[in-house]
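From the pipeline queue, job 12 of 40. The input is one protein chain; the requested action is below.

Action: predict structure.
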Amino acid sequence: MANEKEVTIYDIAKKLKISPATVSRGLHNNPAISKITKKKIFETAEEMGYRTNHFARNLRQQQTKTIGVIMHELNSSFMTSVLAGIEKITTEAGYDIIIAHSSESAKKEAANAKNLFHKRVDGLIASLAVDTADLDHYKSFINKGIPIVFFDRVEQNGNNTVVIIDNAKCGYIATKHLIDQGCKRIAHITSSLTRNVYSERYKGYQQALAENKIKIDESLLIISDLSEKAGIEAAAQILKMKPRPDGIFITNDFVAAVCIRTLKEAGIKIPEDIAIVGFNNDAIGKLIEPALTTINYPGNDMGEIAARNLINHLKGVSNLEQTNTIIVRSDLVIRKSSLKKGVS
Protein backbone atom coordinates (compact mmCIF):
# COMPACT_ATOMS: atom_id res chain seq x y z
CA MET A 1 0.00 0.00 0.00
CA ALA A 2 2.72 2.46 1.00
CA ASN A 3 4.37 2.29 -2.43
CA GLU A 4 1.11 2.84 -4.31
CA LYS A 5 1.49 5.25 -7.25
CA GLU A 6 0.69 8.89 -6.46
CA VAL A 7 -2.66 9.98 -7.98
CA THR A 8 -2.30 12.93 -10.38
CA ILE A 9 -4.70 15.36 -12.03
CA TYR A 10 -4.22 13.30 -15.23
CA ASP A 11 -5.69 10.23 -13.49
CA ILE A 12 -8.71 12.27 -12.35
CA ALA A 13 -9.11 13.76 -15.86
CA LYS A 14 -9.01 10.29 -17.42
CA LYS A 15 -11.64 8.95 -15.04
CA LEU A 16 -13.99 11.92 -15.58
CA LYS A 17 -13.23 12.12 -19.34
CA ILE A 18 -12.34 15.83 -19.09
CA SER A 19 -9.09 17.71 -19.69
CA PRO A 20 -6.33 17.90 -17.03
CA ALA A 21 -6.57 21.72 -17.29
CA THR A 22 -10.24 21.56 -16.27
CA VAL A 23 -9.35 19.34 -13.30
CA SER A 24 -6.61 21.75 -12.25
CA ARG A 25 -8.93 24.77 -12.51
CA GLY A 26 -11.69 22.91 -10.64
CA LEU A 27 -9.35 21.98 -7.79
CA HIS A 28 -8.26 25.62 -7.55
CA ASN A 29 -11.92 26.71 -7.37
CA ASN A 30 -11.76 28.63 -10.63
CA PRO A 31 -15.10 30.43 -11.26
CA ALA A 32 -14.92 29.44 -14.94
CA ILE A 33 -15.71 25.83 -13.94
CA SER A 34 -19.35 25.02 -13.17
CA LYS A 35 -20.37 24.02 -9.64
CA ILE A 36 -21.53 20.58 -10.84
CA THR A 37 -18.18 19.87 -12.54
CA LYS A 38 -16.26 21.15 -9.51
CA LYS A 39 -18.30 18.88 -7.23
CA LYS A 40 -17.52 15.86 -9.48
CA ILE A 41 -13.82 16.77 -9.52
CA PHE A 42 -13.62 17.12 -5.72
CA GLU A 43 -15.55 13.88 -5.11
CA THR A 44 -13.39 11.91 -7.56
CA ALA A 45 -10.19 13.40 -6.12
CA GLU A 46 -11.29 12.36 -2.63
CA GLU A 47 -12.31 8.87 -3.78
CA MET A 48 -9.00 8.29 -5.60
CA GLY A 49 -6.89 9.58 -2.70
CA TYR A 50 -5.48 12.59 -4.56
CA ARG A 51 -3.32 14.88 -2.43
CA THR A 52 -2.76 18.50 -3.40
CA ASN A 53 0.86 19.21 -4.17
CA HIS A 54 2.32 21.26 -1.35
CA PHE A 55 5.74 19.64 -1.48
CA ALA A 56 6.54 19.03 -5.14
CA ARG A 57 10.27 18.98 -4.49
CA ASN A 58 9.91 15.84 -2.41
CA LEU A 59 7.68 13.94 -4.80
CA ARG A 60 10.54 11.93 -6.25
CA GLN A 61 11.23 10.36 -2.87
CA GLN A 62 7.48 10.21 -2.08
CA GLN A 63 8.17 11.72 1.34
CA THR A 64 8.07 15.16 2.93
CA LYS A 65 9.92 14.45 6.21
CA THR A 66 6.94 15.85 8.09
CA ILE A 67 4.74 14.24 10.74
CA GLY A 68 1.20 15.49 11.41
CA VAL A 69 0.06 15.78 15.04
CA ILE A 70 -3.64 16.15 15.91
CA MET A 71 -4.29 17.25 19.50
CA HIS A 72 -7.71 17.64 21.11
CA GLU A 73 -6.49 20.54 23.27
CA LEU A 74 -3.35 22.58 23.80
CA ASN A 75 -4.04 24.27 27.13
CA SER A 76 -3.06 21.42 29.45
CA SER A 77 0.39 20.68 30.82
CA PHE A 78 -0.18 16.99 29.99
CA MET A 79 -0.64 17.79 26.27
CA THR A 80 2.32 20.18 26.32
CA SER A 81 4.51 17.41 27.74
CA VAL A 82 3.26 14.91 25.11
CA LEU A 83 4.18 17.45 22.42
CA ALA A 84 7.65 17.92 23.94
CA GLY A 85 8.18 14.14 23.81
CA ILE A 86 7.03 13.95 20.17
CA GLU A 87 9.21 16.89 19.17
CA LYS A 88 12.32 15.46 20.84
CA ILE A 89 12.12 12.21 18.85
CA THR A 90 11.03 13.74 15.51
CA THR A 91 13.78 16.39 15.63
CA GLU A 92 16.45 13.75 16.35
CA ALA A 93 15.18 11.76 13.35
CA GLY A 94 15.20 14.82 11.04
CA TYR A 95 11.42 15.23 10.77
CA ASP A 96 9.36 18.42 11.09
CA ILE A 97 5.96 18.35 12.78
CA ILE A 98 2.74 20.11 11.78
CA ILE A 99 0.44 20.57 14.77
CA ALA A 100 -3.34 20.72 14.31
CA HIS A 101 -5.74 21.49 17.16
CA SER A 102 -9.30 20.13 17.15
CA SER A 103 -10.57 22.15 20.18
CA GLU A 104 -12.59 19.08 21.25
CA SER A 105 -14.61 19.15 18.01
CA ALA A 106 -15.01 16.04 15.82
CA LYS A 107 -15.84 18.28 12.86
CA LYS A 108 -12.63 20.27 13.29
CA GLU A 109 -10.65 17.05 13.81
CA ALA A 110 -11.95 15.71 10.47
CA ALA A 111 -10.97 18.98 8.74
CA ASN A 112 -7.51 18.79 10.36
CA ALA A 113 -7.06 15.20 9.16
CA LYS A 114 -8.00 16.19 5.61
CA ASN A 115 -5.66 19.18 5.69
CA LEU A 116 -2.72 17.10 6.94
CA PHE A 117 -3.41 14.46 4.29
CA HIS A 118 -3.15 17.18 1.62
CA LYS A 119 -0.01 18.52 3.27
CA ARG A 120 1.42 15.07 2.40
CA VAL A 121 2.60 14.16 5.89
CA ASP A 122 4.58 10.91 6.05
CA GLY A 123 2.75 9.79 9.19
CA LEU A 124 0.23 10.94 11.78
CA ILE A 125 0.05 11.01 15.60
CA ALA A 126 -3.47 11.74 16.88
CA SER A 127 -5.60 12.04 20.02
CA LEU A 128 -9.37 12.06 19.51
CA ALA A 129 -11.79 14.88 20.34
CA VAL A 130 -14.36 14.23 23.04
CA ASP A 131 -17.23 13.85 20.51
CA THR A 132 -15.42 11.87 17.77
CA ALA A 133 -17.72 8.94 17.04
CA ASP A 134 -15.78 7.06 14.34
CA LEU A 135 -12.48 7.04 12.48
CA ASP A 136 -13.85 7.55 8.96
CA HIS A 137 -11.82 10.74 8.46
CA TYR A 138 -8.61 8.71 8.81
CA LYS A 139 -9.52 6.28 6.00
CA SER A 140 -7.62 8.25 3.33
CA PHE A 141 -4.41 7.71 5.37
CA ILE A 142 -5.11 4.00 5.83
CA ASN A 143 -5.94 3.51 2.12
CA LYS A 144 -2.68 5.23 1.18
CA GLY A 145 -0.62 3.21 3.65
CA ILE A 146 0.27 6.31 5.70
CA PRO A 147 0.93 5.13 9.28
CA ILE A 148 -1.07 6.49 12.23
CA VAL A 149 -0.36 6.19 15.95
CA PHE A 150 -3.23 7.17 18.26
CA PHE A 151 -2.46 8.21 21.84
CA ASP A 152 -4.37 8.89 25.08
CA ARG A 153 -7.88 9.32 23.56
CA VAL A 154 -8.19 6.34 21.22
CA GLU A 155 -10.56 3.77 19.73
CA GLN A 156 -9.38 0.30 20.73
CA ASN A 157 -10.83 -1.77 17.90
CA GLY A 158 -7.78 -4.00 17.48
CA ASN A 159 -6.79 -2.51 14.12
CA ASN A 160 -5.07 0.66 15.33
CA THR A 161 -1.73 1.24 16.99
CA VAL A 162 -2.52 2.97 20.30
CA VAL A 163 -0.33 4.33 23.10
CA ILE A 164 -2.25 4.53 26.37
CA ILE A 165 -2.00 4.01 30.12
CA ASP A 166 -4.07 1.40 31.92
CA ASN A 167 -6.88 3.83 32.74
CA ALA A 168 -9.07 1.23 34.48
CA LYS A 169 -6.21 0.21 36.76
CA CYS A 170 -5.45 3.88 37.53
CA GLY A 171 -9.12 4.56 38.34
CA TYR A 172 -9.08 1.55 40.64
CA ILE A 173 -5.85 2.62 42.41
CA ALA A 174 -7.10 6.20 42.94
CA THR A 175 -10.45 5.04 44.38
CA LYS A 176 -8.91 2.26 46.49
CA HIS A 177 -6.52 4.82 48.01
CA LEU A 178 -9.52 6.91 49.13
CA ILE A 179 -11.19 3.79 50.56
CA ASP A 180 -7.96 2.98 52.45
CA GLN A 181 -8.14 6.50 53.97
CA GLY A 182 -11.53 5.57 55.43
CA CYS A 183 -13.73 7.17 52.74
CA LYS A 184 -17.11 5.46 52.32
CA ARG A 185 -19.01 7.93 50.13
CA ILE A 186 -16.79 8.70 47.13
CA ALA A 187 -17.89 11.03 44.32
CA HIS A 188 -16.37 10.88 40.84
CA ILE A 189 -15.98 13.98 38.66
CA THR A 190 -15.19 13.10 35.06
CA SER A 191 -15.89 13.90 31.39
CA SER A 192 -17.88 12.17 28.62
CA LEU A 193 -17.98 8.41 29.21
CA THR A 194 -18.06 7.85 25.44
CA ARG A 195 -14.25 8.46 25.43
CA ASN A 196 -12.05 5.51 26.39
CA VAL A 197 -9.97 7.37 29.01
CA TYR A 198 -12.99 8.43 31.07
CA SER A 199 -15.07 5.26 30.67
CA GLU A 200 -12.08 3.12 31.72
CA ARG A 201 -11.31 5.28 34.77
CA TYR A 202 -14.98 5.05 35.76
CA LYS A 203 -14.83 1.25 35.42
CA GLY A 204 -11.83 1.20 37.78
CA TYR A 205 -13.70 3.43 40.25
CA GLN A 206 -16.72 1.09 40.15
CA GLN A 207 -14.53 -2.00 40.58
CA ALA A 208 -12.80 -0.59 43.67
CA LEU A 209 -16.17 0.27 45.26
CA ALA A 210 -17.68 -3.14 44.42
CA GLU A 211 -14.66 -5.05 45.77
CA ASN A 212 -14.91 -3.11 49.03
CA LYS A 213 -18.68 -3.68 49.30
CA ILE A 214 -19.51 0.02 48.82
CA LYS A 215 -22.77 0.54 46.94
CA ILE A 216 -22.37 2.34 43.58
CA ASP A 217 -24.47 5.50 43.75
CA GLU A 218 -25.15 7.14 40.34
CA SER A 219 -25.91 10.47 42.05
CA LEU A 220 -22.21 10.68 43.00
CA LEU A 221 -21.14 10.70 39.33
CA ILE A 222 -20.64 14.23 37.94
CA ILE A 223 -19.92 14.54 34.20
CA SER A 224 -18.53 17.88 33.04
CA ASP A 225 -16.38 19.43 30.30
CA LEU A 226 -13.36 19.77 32.65
CA SER A 227 -13.29 23.58 32.42
CA GLU A 228 -12.82 26.02 35.34
CA LYS A 229 -16.56 26.80 35.29
CA ALA A 230 -17.34 23.06 35.40
CA GLY A 231 -15.01 22.65 38.40
CA ILE A 232 -16.79 25.42 40.31
CA GLU A 233 -20.21 23.94 39.41
CA ALA A 234 -19.11 20.43 40.43
CA ALA A 235 -17.93 21.74 43.82
CA ALA A 236 -21.29 23.52 44.27
CA GLN A 237 -23.05 20.23 43.48
CA ILE A 238 -20.88 18.39 46.06
CA LEU A 239 -21.74 21.02 48.71
CA LYS A 240 -25.49 20.45 48.16
CA MET A 241 -25.27 16.65 48.50
CA LYS A 242 -26.83 15.11 51.61
CA PRO A 243 -25.02 13.26 53.03
CA ARG A 244 -21.94 14.97 51.66
CA PRO A 245 -19.18 12.82 50.09
CA ASP A 246 -16.07 12.21 52.23
CA GLY A 247 -13.88 11.57 49.18
CA ILE A 248 -13.71 12.65 45.53
CA PHE A 249 -11.81 11.08 42.63
CA ILE A 250 -11.43 13.76 39.93
CA THR A 251 -10.23 12.76 36.47
CA ASN A 252 -8.24 15.96 35.84
CA ASP A 253 -5.82 17.91 38.09
CA PHE A 254 -6.91 21.35 36.93
CA VAL A 255 -10.54 20.62 37.82
CA ALA A 256 -9.37 19.09 41.12
CA ALA A 257 -7.50 22.32 41.94
CA VAL A 258 -10.59 24.43 41.13
CA CYS A 259 -12.72 22.11 43.30
CA ILE A 260 -10.30 22.31 46.24
CA ARG A 261 -10.26 26.13 46.05
CA THR A 262 -14.08 26.34 45.82
CA LEU A 263 -14.69 23.83 48.64
CA LYS A 264 -12.18 25.58 50.93
CA GLU A 265 -13.90 28.93 50.27
CA ALA A 266 -17.11 27.28 51.51
CA GLY A 267 -15.36 26.24 54.75
CA ILE A 268 -14.68 22.59 53.86
CA LYS A 269 -11.41 21.19 55.25
CA ILE A 270 -9.34 19.16 52.77
CA PRO A 271 -8.63 16.29 53.47
CA GLU A 272 -10.31 16.11 56.92
CA ASP A 273 -13.86 16.66 55.59
CA ILE A 274 -13.31 15.56 51.99
CA ALA A 275 -10.22 13.72 50.70
CA ILE A 276 -9.37 14.38 47.05
CA VAL A 277 -7.40 12.52 44.36
CA GLY A 278 -6.74 14.04 40.91
CA PHE A 279 -5.30 12.69 37.66
CA ASN A 280 -2.35 13.63 35.35
CA ASN A 281 0.27 14.92 37.81
CA ASP A 282 0.13 18.44 36.36
CA ALA A 283 2.33 21.16 37.90
CA ILE A 284 -0.75 22.79 39.46
CA GLY A 285 -1.02 19.85 41.89
CA LYS A 286 2.12 20.91 43.75
CA LEU A 287 1.10 24.58 43.86
CA ILE A 288 -2.30 24.26 45.54
CA GLU A 289 -2.81 23.86 49.27
CA PRO A 290 -3.02 21.09 50.30
CA ALA A 291 -0.82 19.56 47.57
CA LEU A 292 -2.80 17.17 45.37
CA THR A 293 -2.62 13.38 45.42
CA THR A 294 -2.77 12.32 41.78
CA ILE A 295 -2.04 9.68 39.16
CA ASN A 296 1.27 10.31 37.43
CA TYR A 297 0.50 10.27 33.70
CA PRO A 298 3.87 10.68 31.97
CA GLY A 299 2.97 12.73 28.87
CA ASN A 300 6.62 13.08 27.86
CA ASP A 301 7.05 9.29 27.75
CA MET A 302 3.80 8.91 25.85
CA GLY A 303 4.90 11.43 23.20
CA GLU A 304 8.34 9.85 22.83
CA ILE A 305 6.92 6.32 22.55
CA ALA A 306 4.28 7.35 19.96
CA ALA A 307 6.85 9.23 17.84
CA ARG A 308 9.52 6.52 18.11
CA ASN A 309 7.11 3.79 17.00
CA LEU A 310 5.93 5.89 14.05
CA ILE A 311 9.45 6.80 12.88
CA ASN A 312 10.75 3.23 13.29
CA HIS A 313 7.88 2.14 11.04
CA LEU A 314 8.75 4.82 8.44
CA LYS A 315 12.41 3.72 8.52
CA GLY A 316 11.41 0.07 8.10
CA VAL A 317 12.91 -0.87 11.50
CA SER A 318 9.56 -2.14 12.80
CA ASN A 319 6.01 -2.64 11.56
CA LEU A 320 3.09 -0.86 13.22
CA GLU A 321 0.68 -3.44 11.83
CA GLN A 322 2.18 -5.92 14.30
CA THR A 323 1.81 -3.54 17.28
CA ASN A 324 -1.69 -2.82 18.56
CA THR A 325 -1.52 -1.55 22.13
CA ILE A 326 1.43 0.02 23.94
CA ILE A 327 0.85 0.61 27.67
CA VAL A 328 2.85 3.43 29.29
CA ARG A 329 3.64 3.06 33.02
CA SER A 330 1.70 5.19 35.51
CA ASP A 331 1.48 5.34 39.31
CA LEU A 332 -0.13 7.04 42.30
CA VAL A 333 1.63 10.10 43.73
CA ILE A 334 0.45 10.56 47.34
CA ARG A 335 0.33 14.10 48.73
CA LYS A 336 -1.66 15.80 51.52
CA SER A 337 -5.04 16.29 49.75
CA SER A 338 -6.06 12.68 50.36
CA LEU A 339 -4.40 11.84 53.66
CA LYS A 340 -7.11 12.00 56.32
CA LYS A 341 -5.97 12.88 59.86
CA GLY A 342 -4.82 9.93 61.90
CA VAL A 343 -4.48 7.64 58.83
CA SER A 344 -0.93 6.90 57.74
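Job complete. Residues 54-60 have pLDDT under 50 and may be disordered.
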